[in-house]
Amino acid sequence: MAHPVASRGSAVVRRSRAARLTYAFGVSLPGPVAAGAAGLVAVELLVLMAWGADTRAQAGAGSALRVGADLWLLAHGASLRLPAGAVHFHPLGLVVMPLLVAASAGYRLAAARAEQHSLLQRAMAGRLRLPIRPGATLAAGAVRPTGAKAAASAPSRVSRRAAALDVVAVVVAQTALVLAVCLAASAPAARPAVGSAVAGAIVLSGLGATAGVLAGHRRVRSAWRLVPAVLRVPLAAGCAATAALAAVGALGLSVLLIVRAGSVAAAANGLGPGVVGGFGLFAGQVAVLPNLVVWGVCYALGVGFAAGPELTLTPTTAAPSSLPDLPVLRLLPTAPLPGWAWLVLAVAPLAAGVALALTVRRGSPGAAFGGRLSMVCAGTVVCTLLVGLLAAVSGGGIGAGVAARLGPASGWAMLATFVEVGMAGALVTSVAELVRRR
Known about the structure:
By secondary structure, the protein is mainly α. Helices cover 70% and strands 5% of the residues. A hairpin with a 2-residue loop joins strand 3 and strand 4 (142-145). Helix 13 packs across helix 15. It holds the Pfam family DUF6350. The chain crosses the membrane at residues 21-43, 89-110, 163-187, 193-214, 235-258, 264-282, 289-307, 339-360, 372-392, 412-435.
């Protein structure tokens, strides 16, 4: 049986630890809340500028503020329920905003905590009168002289619990702010879906905060090295293949922008948005461009994407005449591709296969041919999952009209990616092995 004095002492220690943890968590909350509120204010200011410059607008400032809040919620993954139908289409250019806000907040928290830890170490070293020369720091029981650059680049020794606390603080702050805006912006004209908004806020803020905290503690490389090589190589190869697909899609979209710039400009001028409205229209189209890049990847893989409730646009079909009033959608193909153009589309899976095989070869220099093929297959699975995720988040629908169904089907995109990129990666790996043996 434990001594009563010892039991009371351990209870006091547990309470003091809980109090310190609660205090540290509470101190960490204002920064992420301020960062999220700054993003909301920026969106609201843009919407208010467009509303104030539009002389034809009949709605009041309150309606304009609700529109800005709805756009901010769409960036966090929320769906909107309108009288004319639901809006569950999320421009990926807007989705980047909460990721950057969470990463910035996490980085600031981690950098501040690392600085406090460094100051505490120096204070303890001074109190204990340890023989530390000027320009040296205490690390792992040894005195190592460091300069300003080395001190700035050295990873901090803050505990994992403190780093996890920073991530949780950012996630809680961003999610609470999104929930509050959801409840405040709900109106009969547009009701945000609380479930999708909270889920999107948790995922986006969690990813951004984790990246920011690791960068703030300068632990990105060490965290990546903790992953076993048998998983690290396929993960890097899959990400490289996905990046190659996205690069080919962005290149194709850039060529279309150059070729069809006249039709896009004519469609924009036909809307008569004015100066400020034209800026808002331009910003909206830029926010949609990443979605079009993903659609272009699926188009190059042959599965295409939905361009309306009844039509899936593939290399053998043409875009419908009725499209949403977004000029950038005039980039969609107006006729089926000729036979020779299929060779151009083959560049996308071939480039992804080359990136996949080269990354595997660079990451496993001494592996046998069978081991490299297995890593290529594992990297293909990673690339397949990433393309399926991008296809799922890039699509959606707006209302119940011509834009009720937009974007690729993630299942077909995953199947095409697995077959085409996997075959290309295996082919490049086999050719490289034959060249090496000669």
